[in-house]
Amino acid sequence: MDLYVREGGLDGRTLPSDSTESVRRLSGILNRLGAYPAELRGATYRSPNAVALKLLNLRAVQTDGAEGMPAHSQADAAAWRDYVDDLPRLHSEAEAIRTRLNDGSIQPASAVATVEDVEIEEQHTEAYLVDPGPPRAAQRAEARLVQSYRSYMDRQGVLVRRKRYKPAGEVQPIYSDIWVEARSALIEAKNSDDRNAVRQAIGQLYDYRRFHSQPVHLAVLLPYRPNADRLELLRSAAVEAVWPHRNGFRDTAEGLFV
After folding, report:
1. What's the rounded Cα separation, in Å, for the pair 116 and 151?
2. 98-120 pLDDT, tens per residue?
3. Residue 51 lies in a domain
4. Domain for residue 240, yes or no?
């Protein structure tokens, strides 16, 4: 869609063919991106002809089928709805994909999921991987909270890192906030006990947990002790809470996480 807009598609201009340099260049990028494992790709995977046809699909979306190739997917229409009224975000996210591909943050998909330890200093977030703009205030606060917890655990001689997960068939990795090998502990940091933040943390922890072959302990790291309702919500999901206290931290798991 980024190419469609840049080539004047919104203005009804003639769309580039499969022999056009911009189409061939995008075909090359998409093949490097490799959104499907190599063993699952056909001979025409993301070919210049396929890219040119996708542009015609977008023309059909724009004109409600009056022009272009109407056999477009629901994903084409969904992408159009998401971005047609926010073209700066469209261009920004397209450029972010190219940047992440070039710096190795995004890598070709594999048929097998991979998991590896990475240092806390690699402050990647899922939002950053999509849009490498300045982090939100909440993300900065969460990063400080993670660093504070790591420093506290370091003083106790406990190594704190994080996990990078590459799901099968995905090009974009996902990162946990904290992994404590010695405690088999996965911890997700949030800037408040806002209900939506706690719900999101539970979902993220459950997503990460499935990549571990052995049982892991789950917790949410918050800047303060959560209120009674949020504690009950966490308990119902078998997730503990961790928060700063004086010069250290406390948890709801009798010290398992601290």
Report:
1. 22
2. 998 888 777 777 778 889 999 98
3. yes
4. yes
- CB-side exposure of 52: number of CA atoms within 13 Å? 15
At 180-206, the pLDDT tens digits run 999 999 999 999 999 999 999 999 999
State the Cα–Cα distance between residues 169 and 163, nearest whole angstrom: 18
Q: CA–CA separation, 147 vs 163, rounded Å?
A: 15
CB 182 within 8 A of CB 150: no
Question: Are 119 and 94 contained in the same domain?
Answer: no
Model's pTM, two decimal places?
0.68
State how far the Cα of 133 lies from the Cα of 175, in Å rounded to an integer: 18
CA atoms of 257 and 110, how far apart (whole Å): 33
Q: Letter for the amino acid at 173?
A: P
Residue 129: the pLDDT is: 47
Report the SS3 class of residue 62. Answer: helix
Q: Are 24 and 18 in contact (CB under 8 A)?
A: yes
Residue where one domain finishes, among candidates 73, 103, 133: 103
Tokens of 183: 């405690």
Closest CA to 219 of 187, 196, 192: 187
Across the beta sheet with 185-189, the strand order is 178-180, 185-189, 217-221, 240-245, 248-251
In sequence order, which residues have a C-beta less than 8 Å from that of residue 211 and are 6 or more positions away? Answer: 113, 115, 163, 165, 167
User: Distance between CA atoms of 39 and 19, rounded to whole angstroms?
Assistant: 27
Residue 248: both structure tokens together: 């250290």
